[in-house]
Design brief:
The complex is a heterodimer of chains A (332) and B (256). Chain A has 332 residues and is an all-alpha fold. Chain A has a domain of 213 residues. Chain A is 78% helix and 2% strand. Chain A has 13 helices and 4 strands. In chain A, the strands form 2 sheets. A two-stranded antiparallel sheet of chain A has the order 1-4. Chain A has a two-stranded antiparallel sheet with strand order 2-3. In chain A, β2 and β3 form a beta hairpin. With 256 residues, chain B is of the alpha/beta class. In chain B, 47% of the residues are buried. The longest helix of chain B is centred in the C-terminal third of the chain and has 16 residues. In chain B, strands 6-9-10-3-11-12 form a 6-stranded mixed beta sheet, sandwiched between helices. In chain B, strands 2-1-4-5 form a 4-stranded antiparallel beta sheet, with helices on one face. The chains are: A mainly alpha (332), B alpha/beta (256). At the A-B interface, α1, α8 and α9 of A face α3 and β8 of B.
């Protein structure tokens, strides 16, 4: 212990610039990367930098970005939520089901769907915090089980034809062009950013994610804030479900497959540490946008979709490499 | 300094353990230990690894509950069921593991668990006040850190220890407990930390400090309590003992 600390002091002056750069890169790297990719794409295709394409891009990104913003709270608390896709599918189907089969008013159907997703997130958090089951196991079980439940209830049914309120968040356009989904995304981003940085809720989630024992010594209730991080992920899944119904105007069991990977990728690419304790909400939206941008660019360039999967994989590893390297340096 | 220790003996202890025992499964970590902390003194708690030092201070800090025995605070029997309860009594603790969050910046660690908030909800953190108070306290203590925005991860061992000690100071604690504050520090950094401990005493606090370093112990302590095998093996005023005697008490060679 003595040795590691002394060498830390000795190297401090030499490595301080490197760590500074890394700290800035964590915060700003995503935006520089976005800019570079966007510039590249505008050379590749004259259609890229049109208002229509940019609005559509952001609109397309909104759903996964909302899911990823909730995921950010979970990862900030050193957890991981693999269940988000299945939870979105379940709550979307339940909203549609209540509205169509039981003629529940659309406002109530949406609220009940969001409430269900929030309750499921809370249940996951409870199993993890109170019973001590690892995050990965609980949410992997959730990924399987909730999807199974969706298929059990809805089988191959396609539920469609919703009213304007159910379609509002995912489909409405202000002035005929500006999507409500983008406005919704930015409102959620603002609220979540404030919650993360300026409330005890967000700060204590970061604290338990950074060092659980230190947080507990400081009197912070680990169980409460671990559970609440999953509650917020569930809430985000519920809001995303409402968006998804409006977007598709049709709901079926196979909805939202793969959201877990895309949301986690967005979070990590955005600069949040997969090891907990450091989280950047705007970065998460940037990360989601980056994923869409790559996809968009490959489509515009007529390149195989398989490249999209390969590039996403490489990007994910590269994004985790930085915090992993920092931690290796620190623990030595 | 020796005349203050003489007057201490006549005072009532600010905090005392009476006949305290603590078991972990079959292991007797502490057995029938009496321990007093007098106002405005520095008590060094010494002993070999496994002698029960950490267990004893964790009982004072509200992390562990004794299986038997009493805790007195200002003469009144108390229970200290949690670190929060200890803080409410005026007992502040600087842990060996430092209990800092490396992924957070300086003010976040400074106010960890008791952030100033706006309004009555206790939810909205007053970041501006956090930064101002942190700056003021660090300045008062002469602690220099590169930048408040720096993550604790990037601070040196001495800077971390200074932060860990500095953050307990604004809360008006009367008893400050420190678990090996100079472990793993270089000579100069250790010197700074010892100065901080002396500053705490000047401000009227009592300090309970665990240390393995006899030089540091004899440098700052007024009184030295030795634990061996979970029992109290000695309790000496510094002015009436020598490093040799303390070492013999620690390892168990018969003296009297």
């Amino acid at each position: 212990m003595g040795n590691s600390n002394r060498s830390h002091t000795d190297t401090a002056t030499g490595s301080v610039n490197v760590t500074r750069v890394l700290q800035y890169w964590r915060r700003g790297g995503i935006y520089i990367s976005l800019l570079l990719v966007a510039i590249g794409l505008s050379f590749l295709s004259p259609r890229f930098l049109t208002r229509l394409n940019l609005v559509e891009l952001l609109n397309y990104t909104a759903i996964i970005a909302v899911v990823a913003l909730g995921q950010t709270f979970v990862i900030a608390g050193k957890g991981i939520d693999l269940s988000v896709g299945s939870v979105v599918a379940l709550s979307s189907c339940v909203m549609a089901w209540l509205f169509i089969d039981y003629a529940v008013p659309s406002v109530l159907a949406v609220l009940l769907g969001i409430g269900l997703a929030t309750a499921i997130g809370t249940l996951h958090g409870y199993l993890i915090a109170q019973l001590g089951i690892p995050d990965l196991v609980v949410t992997l079980a959730g990924l399987e089980a909730w999807r199974g439940l969706v298929y059990l209830i809805f089988e191959e049914r396609v539920l469609m034809r919703f009213d304007p309120f159910m379609r509002f968040l995912g489909n409405y356009r202000f002035g005929g062009w500006f999507p409500a989904a983008i406005l919704g995304l930015f409102i959620i981003l603002a609220i979540y950013t404030f919650t993360l940085n300026r409330t005890t809720l967000g700060r204590y989630i970061l604290a338990i994610g950074g060092n659980r024992r230190a947080a507990e010594y400081a009197g912070i209730n680990f169980f409460k804030y671990k559970i609440l991080s999953y509650t917020l992920s569930g809430l985000s899944c519920g809001i995303a479900s409402w968006m998804l119904i409006g977007r598709l105007n049709a709901v079926q069991s196979s909805l939202a497959v793969g959201y877990e990977l895309h949301s986690i990728a967005a979070v990590v690419i955005g600069g949040t540490s997969l090891f907990g304790g450091i989280a950047l909400m705007p970065g998460t939206v940037g990360g989601a946008l980056m994923i869409s941008l790559i996809r968009n660019g490959l489509i515009l360039g007529g390149i195989s979709f398989y490249w999209y999967m390969i590039i996403l994989g490489i990007l994910l590893v590269a994004s985790v490499a930085l915090p992993a390297w920092e931690r290796r340096k620190e623990t030595r | 300094m020796s005349d203050t220790t003489v007057t201490n003996e006549k005072k009532e202890p600010i905090m005392a353990l009476q006949g305290v025992s603590k078991y972990f499964g079959g292991v007797h970590a502490l057995e029938e230990v009496d321990f007093e902390v007098y106002p405005n003194e520095i008590v060094a708690l010494v002993g070999d690894n496994g002698a029960g030092k950490s267990t004893l201070i964790k009982i004072l800090a509200g992390v562990h509950q004794p299986n038997r025995g009493k805790i007195l605070f200002r003469g009144e029997p108390v229970e200290i069921p949690s670190p929060r309860a200890a803080q409410a009594l005026g007992i502040e603790t600087v842990y060996q593991e430092l209990a800092l969050i490396e992924t957070r910046d300086v003010p976040a660690n400074f106010f960890l668990g008791r952030e100033p908030t706006r309004g009555t909800s206790g939810i909205f953190v007053d970041r501006k006040k956090m930064v101002e108070d942190t700056v003021r306290t660090l300045k008062d203590l002469g602690i220099v850190l590169p930048s408040l925005r720096t993550l604790v991860r990037y601070l040196s061992g001495g800077q971390r220890q200074a932060l860990a000690i500095g953050r307990v100071m604004p809360w008006g604690g009367k008893v400050i407990i420190m678990d090996e504050p100079t472990a793993a520090l270089g000579v100069r950094e250790a010197r700074k930390v010892l100065d901080l401990v002396l500053q705490l005493k000047e401000k009227g606090c009592s300090v309970v400090v665990i240390s393995h370093n006899m030089r540091h112990v004899f440098n700052i302590a007024d009184r030295i309590v030795v634990l061996r095998g979970g029992k109290k093996a000695g309790d000496r005023m510094k002015s009436e003992t020598t490093p040799d005697e303390i070492v013999k008490l620690i390892v168990g060679a018969e003296m009297l």
